[in-house]
Write a structure and sequence with these properties.
- The chain has 656 residues and is an alpha/beta fold.
- It folds into 3 domains: 12-176, P-loop containing nucleotide triphosphate hydrolases (Rossmann fold), CATH 3.40.50.300; 185-272, Helix Hairpins (Orthogonal Bundle); 295-651, no CATH class.
- It has 28 helices and 10 strands.
- It has helices at residues 28-36, 80-92, 106-118, 130-135, 142-149, 164-171, 185-196, 206-213, 217-224, 229-244, 250-269, 281-290, 295-342, 346-353, 358-387, 389-401, 411-416, 421-427, 434-447, 451-462, 466-490, 510-545, 547-562, 570-576, 580-590, 595-606, 612-622, 624-651, and strands spanning 17-21, 41-44, 51-57, 64-68, 96-102, 122-128, 138-140, 153-156, 175-176, 270-272.
- The strands form 2 sheets. Strands 1, 2, 3, 4, 5, 6, 8 and 9 form an 8-stranded mixed sheet that branches. A two-stranded antiparallel sheet has the order 7-10.
- A hairpin with a 6-residue loop joins β3 and β4 (64-68).
- α18 runs parallel beside α27, α19 packs antiparallel against α21 (466-490) and α19 (434-447) packs across α28 (624-651).
- The longest helix is centred in the middle third of the chain and has 48 residues, at 295-342.
- It is globular.
- Residues 1-10 have low confidence and may be disordered.
């Protein structure tokens, strides 16, 4: 964790640290906001791509550094997010850990509580969302739970600030829990033997020994830096002998026995009112969304609403108003007059307000055409995310994804790819096998359009007919499944089991949605606008130097003869490597395409090479060789498939 100096010059090391931990979707971000206010620093945890939020807090007249960790289900990590949370607890040695629980799903949370107790961390338990739990007939005895763990337990409804005062009071008096899990005799013997290896330095604590036996690679690296090679060799020998005597992985056995202890605790502290259970409307909605029959019309309704809001209102009404009125009648004419008056050099004027101008093309496209589309997509995505619908979507598509050697979990990075393929490629880490990660990386780069590109495509198909949108969508979905299916056959390795915790369906809080949407729009403006400007500048240079004409002539046999498009569209494919949405905009605005040409162009550019940012992330995540193979395949596939699609449309005389 990078240190952040305070205004009075003191260092973070001298300031008490409060670390928030909890399962995903338990309200940690709301608690973090209540504790810290709005002055937040967001940065990557060192050596990772995982973002950590931290901010200073001054409640109870004591300045503290509050750190919000990624949602985690276990401190024996299955993903980079969970590994970062575990590393923060190990390295930061916080004065207090606040575990935020979803009171409706306390069983999942108590497994994490036992691990905190094993780590000998001073912590408190925050039973959040107690109102939702009680409405579903779920009651938790706070006093019994507090006596069981020997720590403070408070109930909160964070979104309404209920219980916040009790929470801050408890933070001032954290305690370590004496609770331990009695594992099987041979595992307890292994734990003691590991701890005895390092009695002088006391580096191998009980929790570290348990993580090591469970096969935690991160803990093995952590120990390698702290104990000598002889100790590590003996430690591996102890673990290997213990594993040899057990048919199941040690991590699985440890988790099973921990969950047995959780169930014993639940029997004492949890009461469920059978009369209320299952009556809650949100529970019923949650079941309907995963029903094999009723889940399908719900899914279609969600997609239809997304199209109406993003494709028609965002890409139609809002874009028309911004492009024609705001930029067309006010901003561009005003800036053009100012530039013509202030700048005497013709080449500079052309660069700013000419045919390929940084203002008249780049800024107009980025803000007037793409920004409203991206904004509405992020809004819809945030609603699906906060309502708990996304994991249910994963369950719905699990059976279909198995055809591609994947499981339903893969739908999460695939849907995130509709926001940004670059970010989604990073989240492919949640998939347990390398084979699955390569397949998802390929499909994201090949056929999952980012939100900006998707919006532009909706804008393009809206100028033809709804049928064109359906054909485009059907073709792209078909390509995803066909390429995924054959990739699963060709690539070595096996898939993994499908295990996914589903958060409860809840009514999204609009303030949270708006904060997330604004943060994502800020990312878009920082990321996309400079690339739009760069793409326009390159296009301007190519135009002035005559290079664009050379590229168009060189690509003419493919673009004209194979795809049936005007040769001017070749420049859009060149720009597609900078941003695929930028290429789509150029095609729509510059190509003067008929309906068949528009559909062929949109299908081809959707399947075209990933943008440069995604390419660099692919290199980072999968390696240079794999990234180059993926890009080479995509380049050839896009043009060959685009040509076949063009000939098929014309052969069957399809019209719109």
């Amino acid at each position: 964790m990078h240190g952040h100096g305070t205004q009075d010059g003191s260092d973070d090391k001298d300031i008490p640290k409060i670390v928030l931990v909890g399962n995903p979707n338990v309200g940690k971000s709301v608690i973090f906001g209540l504790l810290t206010g709005k002055y937040v620093t967001v940065s990557n945890y060192p050596g990772t791509t995982v973002e950590i939020s931290q901010a200073y807090s001054g409640f109870n007249r004591e300045k503290s550094l509050v750190i919000d960790t990624p949602g985690t289900n276990s401190l024996i990590p299955q993903s980079e997010d969970e590994r970062v949370t575990r590393d923060i607890l190990l390295k930061e040695q916080p004065e207090v850990v606040v575990q935020v629980m979803d009171s409706k799903n306390i069983r999942r949370a108590l497994s994490l509580t036992l691990q905190l107790a094993e780590m000998d961390m001073p912590f408190i338990l925050d039973l959040n969302m107690v109102d939702e739990a009680r409405s579903r007939g779920i009651y938790i005895d706070e006093k019994k739970l507090s006596r069981t763990f020997g720590v403070e337990v408070v109930s909160t409804v964070a979104t309404r600030r209920q219980g916040f005062g009790a929470l801050t009071d408890s933070i001032s008096a954290p305690r370590k829990s004496p609770v331990t899990v009695a594992y099987a005799t041979e595992i307890e013997t292994g734990i003691r033997n590991l701890m005895d290896l390092d009695q002088t330095a006391d580096t191998i604590s009980r929790s570290v020994a348990i993580m090591f036996l469970a096969g935690d690679d991160g803990i093995e690296e952590w120990l390698d830096d702290r104990v000598d090679a002889t100790v590590m060799k003996q430690a591996r020998s102890i673990r290997d002998r213990l594993q040899y005597g057990n048919p199941k992985p040690l991590g699985h056995i440890i988790n099973q026995q921990r969950m047995t202890r959780v169930d014993e605790i639940l029997e004492d502290v949890l009461r469920v009112d059978a009369l209320k259970k299952g009556r809650d409307i949100y529970q019923n909605i949650g079941r309907w969304t995963m029903h094999p029959v009723w889940g399908i019309p719900i899914l279609l309704a969600v997609l239809y609403l997304t199209y109406k809001i993003v494709g028609e209102f965002g890409a139609g009404t809002c874009v028309d108003f911004l492009e024609s009125v705001v930029f067309g009648e006010y901003i561009n004419p005003l800036i053009s007059r100012a530039v013509n008056f202030l700048i005497p050099f013709k080449i500079v004027r052309e660069l700013l307000i000419g045919e390929y101008g940084l203002i008249t093309m780049a800024l107009t496209y980025a803000v007037a055409i793409v920004l409203p589309i991206v904004g509405f997509f992020f809004l819809i995505f945030g609603l699906m995310e906060d309502s708990g619908y996304l994991p249910r979507l994963a369950i719905m598509v699990n059976r279909v994804f198995k055809l591609m050697g994947l499981n339903g979990t893969a739908v999460l990075p695939m849907i995130l790819g509709l926001g940004c393929a670059t970010m989604a490629t990073l989240t492919a880490r949640i998939l347990p096998s390398e084979k699955e990660r390569i397949i998802v990386t390929l499909l994201l780069a090949l056929a999952v359009p980012c939100s900006a590109q998707l919006g532009v495509i909706f804008g393009g198909t809206a100028t033809i007919s709804p049928a064109a949108t359906l054909i485009w969508g059907g073709v792209i979905v078909g390509v995803i499944f066909v390429v995924g299916f054959f990739s699963a056959l060709v690539l070595p390795g096996t898939g993994s089991d499908f295990i996914l915790e589903t958060p409860p369906i809840r009514l999204p809080k609009m303030s949270n949605i708006l904060v997330k949407t604004l943060a994502r729009l800020e990312w878009y403006l920082k990321e996309a606008v400079p690339l739009f400007a760069l793409g326009t500048f390159i296009l301007f240079c190519f135009h002035k130097l005559g290079i664009l004409g050379v590229i168009e002539d060189a690509a003419a046999p493919v673009v004209v003869n194979l795809l049936g498009l005007p040769k001017e569209v070749a420049g859009a494919f060149v720009m597609g490597f900078l941003r695929r949405d930028y290429a789509a905009v150029l095609m729509i605005k510059e190509g003067n395409l008929d309906p068949i040409q528009m559909l062929v162009a949109l299908v081809t550019i959707t399947l075209f090479v990933p943008c440069v940012a995604n390419f660099f992330i692919m290199i980072k995540e999968r390696g240079l060789k794999t990234a180059l193979l993926i890009v080479t395949f995509i380049f050839a596939f896009a043009f060959i498939f685009g040509g076949i699609f063009n000939f098929a449309l014309r052969y069957f005389e399809v019209s719109f």
